[in-house]
From TrEMBL:
Coiled coil stretches, renumbered: none
UniProt GO cellular component terms: cytoplasm
GO MF entries: aldehyde-lyase activity; metal ion binding
Family to which this protein belongs: Belongs to the HpcH/HpaI aldolase family.
Name of this chain's protein: Hydroxypyruvate/pyruvate aldolase
Reactions the enzyme catalyzes: D-glyceraldehyde + pyruvate = 2-dehydro-3-deoxy-L-galactonate
Start and end residues of each HpcH/HpaI aldolase/citrate lyase domain: 18-241
Cofactor(s) the record lists: a divalent metal cation
Keywords: Lyase, Membrane, Metal-binding, Pyruvate, Transmembrane, Transmembrane helix
SUPFAM superfamilies for this protein: Phosphoenolpyruvate/pyruvate domain (SSF51621)
Amino acid sequence: MPAPRNLFKQRLLAGETQLGLWMSLASPVAAEALSLLDFDWLLFDTEHAPVEIAQLQALLQAAAAGTPHCAARPAWNDKVLIKRILDVGAQTLLVPFVQTAEEAAAAVAATRYPPDGIRGVAGGTRASRYGTEPDYLTTANREICTIVQIETRAALDQIEAICAVDGVDGIFIGPSDLSASLGHLGNPSAPQVQEQLRLAADRVIACGKSPGILATTAADAKRYREMGYLFIACGVDLGLLSGAARGLLAEMGKA
Ligand SMILES: O=C(O)C(=O)C[C@H](O)[C@@H](O)CO
């Protein structure tokens, strides 16, 4: 049996819109419950969430209950972190803080077995169904989706060069870090930041790649969709939980 088909990658390359959810709670219960909703993808964050590799494996196992495609973000553009995430079965990686074509190429190489890259070979991991998929090693590369995250002014300057790197399947813009880099720390809604987000989407699309982004409200997600963003994390599980709890308290008159 070959590696599982990566439908998220196929839809990304076809330019389809895919609505996702950003997962920071580090909770298998939340992962399982939210996987049963109709999101196209879930992103498990290991950069800014307290998630190590064994926990990520448990999160992926829990989310396998449902249909969304499961992506993961390593804590850094690091070949060891990326290898370990691939081994626990994530096929789509969102690699943070990529600023140059060279860094993008390194991210791609880390996700591919030789001769296309440098991913280390393991006999039995969750990715290969613990070694029961005889064709996994020869088919894994084509089912990996590598998305790089642009989150600085310097990276914005390199969008076209980064998009041109073979194996980069999509470009994800991090509004929080980008706003910080542009001098608007904590304020991604600043008009100058929003203008850069609009321009970035246009430039990525002009390069023939799909742009993605993280929104924290439905209003933001809709605006980003109008800007042309194609894979949009429409919210964060942690934010949704605490927002709903705050709303409940407010309704009870304890704001
Ligand atoms: O810059 C951003 O935006 C991101 O990279 C996402 C953040 O890390 C964070 O908001 C995720 O919870």
